[in-house]
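BUG: 3D viewer hangs when loading the predicted structure for this chain

Environment: internal workstation, default settings.
Expected: structure renders.
Actual: progress bar stalls at 90%.

Input used:
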Amino acid sequence: MSFEFLEPVSDLVAAHTKLLSEHSLGKQIKIHTSSSGVPDLKQINMAILGIQENRNDINYLGEKLNFDTIRKSLYELYPGNWNANIADLGDITPGNEVSDTYYLVQEVLSDLLKKNIIPIILGGSQDLVYAQYRSFDVLERMVNLANVDSKFDLGNSSEPITNTSFVGKIIVEQPYNLFNYSNIGYQTYYNAQEEIDLIEKLYFDACRLGEVISDVTIVEPIMRDADIVSIDLRVMNAVSMNGMTTSPNGFDGREICAICRYAGISDKVKSFGIYEFKNFKTEETTALLIAQMIWYFVEGVNYRSNEINIKNLKNTLHYNVPVEDEILSFYKSPKTGRWWIEIPFITSGNNKLKRHTLLPCTYNDYELACNQEIPERWYKAKRKNEV
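Structure tokens produced before the viewer hung:
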């Protein structure tokens, strides 16, 4: 069992938990401690997992990671009106080689996926997303990755993997299980024009920082279609991160918490990771923000609508809109008001793609179709299906 190799939550944090209010999260979460061992995962919906691996960070200088301040901040919060059952499994410590860490991460996450438990990952350098993605190999189907990041992280896929090239590795290495990659919050001056052009050429989605700040709701349909969500903390501005990041531009605390809630409320998201945490002298503010990000993700999961099979649910509204030589088929949930658009399925013998025939969209996409404009996300998804 892969859970045998997990390091328990530190005794310091476990002792701190005993001082908390009976109503706090720390008293509700089942915690892996040195005295009690790995908790029973029956009835568990979500599991927190720290990964102390950062050796493939291009700026690695030998720092060791611990997540004590994040855990203490999270445990001190109070849950909402939730039915969620959460476990904290402790940490994965660095293996002899980084590849050993990847292997264990993949095994632990695969075990959680098979148990229908959503992992909430605390990293470590963001190259760990590669192992997070590979854990889905056991499901033998195509997956969508949403990355909240100021950079695309395509890098040079022919060179060893780093925290700036993991997406390139995901795209080119077999088995090819990536159907769609979406970037949320990229900043043009951090990305080479060749990478921006490649994202467009591959029919991937990319939302600039300014677009999301102007209307954070555009994130919702992207998250609704994601299986894996990864957040690079460097997407945040320096003020919000109390100096842990250096960028003057980026998301603030309110925006990133809204994005986390959209990730949680998605019926499809099965794996959620927050990466690029660094220990530093005044990390308490940053740790509390990360704790609140996790809180909002859990809040979202608690309010999921179970509309993944919206087409087959009773009372679903259906609209056909003729545009040029196409008939665009829209579905609307009367319960949540959310919209989907159908992608024509191309019979290619690839059964992995069948589940991607219904694409989350917005009312604005429906309006565009009514005005004889084909929505961009529909076009990109259709082109990917034809390749």
